[in-house]
Amino acid sequence: MDELIDILDDEGNYTGKRLMKSEAHKNGLFHPTVHIWFYNKKGEILIQQRAASKETYPLLWDVSVAGHIGAGEEIIPSAIREISEEIGLEVSETDLIKVGIFKSIKKHRDELTDCEFHHTYICELKISIDHLKKQESEVKALALLPLSLYITELQKNGSSKKYVPHDQLYLKTIVSAIENQL
């Protein structure tokens, strides 16, 4: 889905420009996104399998919830909206723990370069995965995976191909933040 988004400079500062997401991707322009990683007290993380129709990384497993921040939208309300849309869960601002902002550049092809600043949070999942309602256009499946197994699979060359690739520092920061909550 195309949407109007704010354009950032390469340091993550707002430029005052707004473009459609497709235009930002076509021209490799930075823009803000949200990532929310859910975990439970059993030491499991919630991962989502991206829908087959996704333009990037179809059917790969990824962060629990992620999305673009709409033009003029604040970060926290965007995170709360994305959680509600993608997995049908209502959370409050106090449920979200900010982990950091991560710069990411991924060139998928000549006409699609993701240049993003991921505003990244963790959040405790306090209900059964069976109570979540996935957004069919975005999410094919949801799964809980022990954090230790996720780490092991990412370290293996073959298994890591089923996950959306992320920077190692990003992943280590996420894992550490979740481990600190357990």
TrEMBL record:
Residues 29-168 form the Nudix hydrolase domain. It holds the Pfam family NUDIX. SUPFAM superfamilies: Nudix (SSF55811). InterPro entries: NUDIX_hydrolase-like_dom_sf (IPR015797), NUDIX_hydrolase_dom (IPR000086). This is NUDIX domain-containing protein.
